[in-house]
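All the exercises in this workshop are built on plain-text protein records. A learned vocabulary of local backbone shapes supplies the integers on the structure line. Once this layout is familiar, the rest of the handout is easier to follow. An example says more than a description, so a record of this kind follows:
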Amino acid sequence: MSDVMQVGRADFDRVMVPNYAPIDMIPVRGEGSRLWDQQGREYVDLAGGIAVNVLGHAHPQLIDALTEQAGKLWHVSNVLTNEPALRLASKLVDATFADKVFFANSGAEANEAAFKLARRWAHETVGPDKHEIIACTNSFHGRTLFTVSVGGQPKYSQGFGPALEGISHVPYNDLAALERQISSRTCAVVIEPIQGEGGVIPAAPGYLQAVRELCDRHGALLIFDEVQSGMGRTGKLYAYMHSDVTPDILTSAKSLGGGFPIAAMLTTDAIAAHFAVGTHGSTYGGNPLGCAVAERVLDIINTEQVLAGVDARHRLLVDGIMTVNREFSVFSQVRGQGLLLGAVLADAWRGQARQIQEAAQREGLLVLQAGPDVMRMAPSLVISEADITEAMQRLHKALGHLAE
């Protein structure tokens, strides 16, 4: 075997399309909620790969699941089915409202499938005029042309040609605005139970119930995008389970594979029937490797011990952040649910989320942004109390340097 090629951060600028601006370190190893870079420096990871590394890095059971499947079967295409896909789909159906599952590779692809299915359902049950999709401003549903058009952030859709038709946006948590917009032409309303990229904003009490009622009244489907909020992140397997509101379609990705690329769209028998043979597909969707890992992730997360632990860790993190904040008054509040948290910057610090992220990195702490005014955290659901304590000490140092 030839020597491993040596690469560094400068190689990104040399060979990669410049649609990302990665920070100036390259991680090479992870264990639990710790990462180490090329220079051997250690970081506490509260970013979780943007809510993906739901069981941390290099979880032994996930390594076992991947290694075992890698020795059996990698890929067979959807001309055939496979055992890991059938097991995972069966367990998702048993654990949720759904009767049927479609597998894809990413949240964007799961949402693309959901939006296409909603329009296909409406076309076949009512007619072509019932095609409007209503989403929320500042929502995020992916990076395909369809999903950025549905997402309520124009910065992601501008410059890519004419906008797709039949898509409307209303403010999140504004029931009156939705009531004004929804009509018999609406085929679906898509909601994030907690807006992630838009600032970690939970649905207001009663909002999801009222949206469900409006959809029922107008014969529209309710789609929950749980790409970021799903798989135990809120303390239940999916965030909709806190509200007693059942969607017609749900999308799941990120934490589903614990770091392995996989996504799922969940729906009912009646709606799924409108994706007849040949109407939609994915070459890698339902890949045996991804499904084997995701099955193990689901087995671990969907337990009373892990889900109850999310609530305990939520309290530790929120208390830790607010304790640090008493000295620096950087944050006005911490919002979110479970281990999807947003620390909202106080007025004097508005616009400085990126600077906080960079200062934290310099102290060996990885956090995220959710826009310019929110520091976001989406750590492993099994992060240790010791790692949370260490993370808060490093956050204290970072904010101390910024406040000087």
